[in-house]
Amino acid sequence: MSNPSTRRSGAAALPLLALALLAFNTKSALAAEYVPVWAYNPSPPFVLDQELETGLSYDLAKLLSERSKGQYSFEIEVLPRPRLDLNLSNNEPGVVFWVNNNWFGDPDKIKFLWSDTLIEGSSSVLSPTANPVEFDGAESLIGMDLVGVRGHVYGPVDPLVEAGEISRKDVNSEESLIHFIASERAEVAIVGFSAAGYYIKDLGVEDKVHYSAKPHSEFNRYALVTSPLKHVFEYMDPVVNGFENDAEWQGLLEKYGLK
User: Fold this and answer.
1) SS3 (DSSP) at 8
2) Which residue among 48, 86, 175, 196 is least crowded, i.e. fewest CB within 10 A of its CB?
3) What is the pLDDT of residue 27?
């Protein structure tokens, strides 16, 4: 027959063990360093829904947090470009995904810390599959109907539009632009590769949209890290360097139509 005092001491130990585990987990959670990730262009596929925290930016932040094994917590903060520029000029600690060094006055990559390429960026030239267009400079679009997003500029194509050599019609969003091309209501469009890949996949029109072999423009998208977070960059750098052969990362790119 067991001793009542032994039973009581054993029962008392259980709550103590539970409290110890709770304290350990709480301490571990509190130990994660908060890393702000500034998102100044909250559009698909990078940000789909701010309230639900969905999109590739949130997925990348989650992946980096998980890979750090409790050391860092990467959190998306949506803010306007002027506020981002102010944060950068004040050298505040933060990270920016999907940016190019030339967009931030850092051609030699000495003002900020820059990761390896996250994704290759470009402005794609799209046309209906039934009437494919191969882009070979702005002059190759002369005589065509171009659909664009209202307010967007398209570099050397714009003077030809102003001269009446290219006809341009505007829509309100990149999603509408894809609709126009897929339904053959325009001959050609210029749109960011990342947005094009997402919307074409989301709308299920992969067989109706043709990508020109030659893009309108090309650039790489990196992660920018400010100098106060050099220790975070030293963690991120080898992780990003390994993305090319990382099954989880490649799966995310495929999920958003970026492969």
Assistant:
1) helix
2) 86
3) 45
- Please give the pLDDT value at position 15: 59
CB 47 within 8 A of CB 55: yes
CA distances from 80 to 38, 153, 163, 178, 254 (A): 9, 20, 34, 26, 28
141 SS3 class: helix
Q: Which of 257, 215, 224 is nearest to 46 (CA)?
A: 257
The pLDDT of residue 165: 98
pTM for this structure?
0.75
In the block, tokens 């100044």 appear at: 40
Q: Fill in the DSSP letter of residue 151.
A: T
- Cβ burial 169-198 (10 Å sphere, 16+ → b, else e): eebeebbebbbbbbeeebbbbbbbbbbbbb
Return the H-helix or E-strand segment holding 33: strand 33-39
Under 8 Å between Cβ of 139 and 160: yes
Sign of the four-CA dihedral 170, 173, 174, 180: negative
Q: Phi then psi for 191, rounded to 5 degrees?
A: -150, 150
Q: What pLDDT was estimated at residue 18? A: 55
Q: Are 124 and 188 in contact (CB under 8 A)?
A: no
- The closest alpha carbon to 117, from 244, 251, 18, belongs to 244
Q: What percentage of the chain exceeds 90 in pLDDT?
A: 78
3-state secondary structure 175-186: HHHHHHHHCCCC
